[in-house]
Structure formats: structure tokens, C-alpha cells
Amino acid sequence: MKLAEGLLLRADLLKKIEHLQNRIRPVLIVSNKNKPQEDPDALLAQLRQAIEDLQAIVVRINKTNNDTVVEGEGTLMEALAKRDALKMLAEKLRNIRSASQIHNSGDLNLKSTIDIKKLQIEMDQTGRAFRELDSKIQELNWLTVLKD
């Protein structure tokens, strides 16, 4: 199994766990005369198994991320952390840029306290770095065999 397939399996298991929890809720309590529409014990067993399966795939994904090297970035785990940091920085810079815009308030005494042009250049560089790193990561996800 490739790493990307393991990541898809993890996402599916997370959805399955949420779905099972939502199916269990309505069958937990019924009136004395009624039977639940589904067996809560069977649903709980499925939930427990899905969580065990999730634990196993997360361990395999983490082992793979720690053992796989991304050219120029260190391990895949380090590249993922860097990608997350770039994504966060890009989002925060966009928010700052938006907040620094002076809208038509009619007050001629207002001015921005930051250099918008420099900020835009940093936003562009950050976005490009994120996209390039994300592409490397996605490629490795489909090329790398998931560790046992």
C-alpha cells in the first residue's frame, strides 16, 4: 500500500467513526415497549474496531513520515511541519493585508503602518514555497510504500 492510500484510509476511518457515533446515539435509549432500530452493542463493536484500525494506520503513516526523506527538506515529517507553518504564515499575512487596507472612511489622516508592497512580495513568496513543498509531498505520498 502506498502512503497516499494509507492517508485516504485514515480519512475514511475518521468518517466511519463519526458515522458510527451518530448511529449509536439514537439507539441508546428507547421506551420500554420498543426495541432499538440497530443493536447498540454491535455498533459499539464496530466503533471499537474502527478506532483500532485507525490507530494501526496512524502508526504506519507516522513511521513512514519519519523514515522518508524529502529532497532538501529533511524527513517527510519535517516537510509536513514546514508546509503547515507556510500555510499558517500565508493565512496570517492575508489577514494582516486585509486589516491594513484603508477603506473609504473619508478620513484623509489615515495611513497604513506597514509597507503593503513588501507584504505582498512576502505573501507571494510564501504561497510559492507552500505550493512547491506541497507538490513534493503529494508526489512522495504516491511513490512511497507505507511502512509496517
Taken as a percent bin, the fraction of beta residues is under 5%
Query: Which shape, going by the Cα principal axes?
Result: flat
Helical content, roughly? 55-70%
- Spatial arrangement of strands, main beta sheet: 1-2
Summed up, the helix count is 4
Question: What is the quaternary state of this protein?
Answer: single chain
State the end-to-end CA separation. Answer: 10 Å
What structural class do you assign from the helix and strand content? mainly alpha
Mean pLDDT: 93
Please give the largest β-sheet.
Answer: 2 strands, antiparallel
Order of helices and strands: HHEEHH
Low-confidence runs = none
Protein name: DIP1984 family protein
InterPro entries: DIP1984-like (IPR047741)
Pfam families: DUF6847
Write the layout of secondary structure elements.
Layout: H1 3-24, H2 40-67, E1 69-70, E2 74-75, H3 76-100, H4 116-143
Antiparallel strand pairs: 1-2
Helix pairs in contact: 1-2, 1-4, 3-4
InterPro entries: DIP1984-like
Protein name: DIP1984 family protein
Give a description of the structure.
The structure is a single chain. This protein has 148 residues and is an all-alpha fold. It has 2 domains: 67 residues; 79 residues. The protein contains 4 helices and 2 strands, in the order ααββαα. A two-stranded antiparallel ribbon has the order 1-2. The radius of gyration is 24 Å and the shape is flat.
Features:
flat, 148 residues, 70% helix, two-stranded antiparallel sheet, mainly alpha, 2 domains, 4 helices
